[in-house]
Design a protein that fits this description.
Layout: E1 4-8, H1 13-26, E2 31-35, H2 41-46, E3 49-51, H3 57-67, E4 69-74, H4 80-83, H5 87-107, E5 112-114, E6 117-118, H6 142-161, E7 165-166, E8 168-170, E9 172-174, H7 187-198, E10 200-203, E11 211-215, H8 216-228, E12 240-241, E13 245-247, H9 249-257, E14 264-267, H10 271-277, H11 286-292, H12 300-315
Parallel strand pairs: 1-2, 1-4, 2-3, 4-5, 5-7, 6-8, 8-12, 9-11, 10-14
Antiparallel strand pairs: 11-13
Helix pairs in contact: 1-8, 5-6, 7-9, 7-12
């Protein structure tokens, strides 16, 4: 029986597109998707799918043994803004799901793990500009605390037990194919939908809230590349900084206005502004570029054009 890949949290914003890309690379039947709920038709119909609670260790084991899983992408998590409303539930999901997978790899059931971290591991004491790979990390959100803790456990399991776990700190991820999942950077997706529907958008972040961002295709590219890289090239076993573009709501709105001249943005910051203010404005990802050859393809202009065309197709709004 061929060894297979399991994606846990396959119906989320990143999980959906990652699963489809992995099926494209490895074959539809080789990639088992799983989530606590069903996802979009393309995901459900293109390959095997299992309903799975990421905290259910017994069921995870059953799926791994049934399908002969050897590689796991653990994408299930409660994101920053949502986690602040249910802190203990977020901690339980984000941490216990990781322990289950790390322990199964320690036992030899799994050969390789991908686990995503986030820029949420950084905090107010972190240098905001060109944030280094190794730096002060004092996160102020439940999501950030869980990701920082997870990084330490990943490194520990690698050093103590030889577990091949790999991770990148995702910046804000932008895509038109799946809706955002409750993150602080969601405005950078919502703005495109509202620009095309209403020609206006009210941002929940301040106009000058600069944050590291990345178009989804680059995030998927990085995830695939770090997992394909030879083990000896992966020098960082906590999590790699990853970067592509940084911008503010004001800069993004100005870029959208190049295509939609009448577009207007206004600002009504909510609790997510405090979260954004604690995060870096730009990231130094030179370690990822040196160790496993990371390089992004989408700059701000290319991302804006792609998003407007993509959202326009889904809402039947033509883009000039």
């Amino acid at each position: 029986m061929a060894e297979k890949i399991l994606v846990i949290g396959a119906c989320g914003q990143i999980g959906t597109e990652l699963t489809l890309k992995l099926r494209e690379i490895h074959g539809n039947d080789q990639v088992v998707a799983s989530d606590i709920r069903e996802g979009v038709d393309e995901l459900m119909q293109s390959g095997p799918f299992e309903i799975l609670n990421a905290t259910d260790e017994v069921h995870i084991r059953q799926i791994i043994e049934t399908y002969n899983i050897r590689e796991v992408y653990l994408m299930a998590a409660m994101l920053s803004a949502t986690a602040e409303k249910a802190p203990k539930k977020a901690w339980d999901l984000n941490m216990n799901s990781l322990f289950h997978i790390l322990d199964m790899a320690k036992e030899g059931l799994i050969n390789k793990i991908f686990w995503p971290s986030s820029i949420a591991v950084f905090g107010p004491t972190t240098p905001k500009d060109n944030t280094p790979q190794i730096t002060a990390m004092e996160p102020t959100t439940v999501y950030g605390i869980s990701k920082q803790t997870g990084e330490r456990w990943c490194e520990y399991y690698h050093q103590k037990f030889g577990v091949d776990v790999r991770s990148i700190r995702y910046p804000g991820i932008i895509s038109y194919k799946t809706l955002p999942g409750g993150g602080t950077t969601d405005y950078a997706i919502e703005i495109f939908h509202e620009a095309l529907k209403q020609n206006a958008y009210t941002s929940f972040l301040d106009k000058d809230a600069a944050l590291p961002m990345m178009y989804m295709d680059d995030a998927i590219k990085a995830t695939v590349e770090i997992m394909q890289a030879p083990s000896e090239t992966i020098k960082v076993r906590s999590s790699y900084n990853l970067a592509a573009i940084s911008f503010t709501p004001e800069i993004l709105a100005a870029n959208i206005s190049k295509h939609l001249p009448d577009f207007k943005i206004s600002y009504d910051p909510d609790f997510r502004q405090a979260i954004a203010a604690s995060w870096p404005s730009s990231i130094d990802d030179s370690s990822a570029r040196q160790d496993w050859g990371w390089d992004h393809e989408f700059d701000l202009d290319k991302m804006t054009e792609t998003m407007l065309k993509g959202v326009g197709q889904t809402t039947e709004q033509p883009i000039k």
